[in-house]
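FIELD: query
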Amino acid sequence: MTLSELRNNPGARKGTRRKGRGPGSGRGKTCGKGHKGQKARVGKQGTRGFEGGQMPLYRRLPKKGFNHTRFKTVYCVVNLKALNAFDGGSRITPSVLKKKRLIASVRLPVKVLGDGELTVKLDVVAHAFSQKAREAIERQGGTCEIIG
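FIELD: result
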């Protein structure tokens, strides 16, 4: 005897029931599901997490997970046109900007943006500069110093 000659004993494996093939099959018409009712129908009631129409647990609990908003850097923004209020050749720091009420807080980092036209020479000290702002300040003969 070889492996290819092995067979199950007769009756060890039953065939599958063919449902919905007429009254003579014994599984016609309702296919063994009875009459009407939720269990007789196709749809959501058989899916995982379904709770009979009640709001499922996975939707009742609050969402929890990771996002980057906690670690986002929020800058106090100053535009070039606001820097025209200073005298030429002066050194602009976050504390000077706070005194002029151009920024809300000295605790937040300051970023200089390139909106508007700069007409005076300034030495600006800030945490970040946009490319356009840096070019405009240096074009007027000023300097851009980044705070660590």
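FIELD: remark
The chain is about 15% helix and 15% strand.
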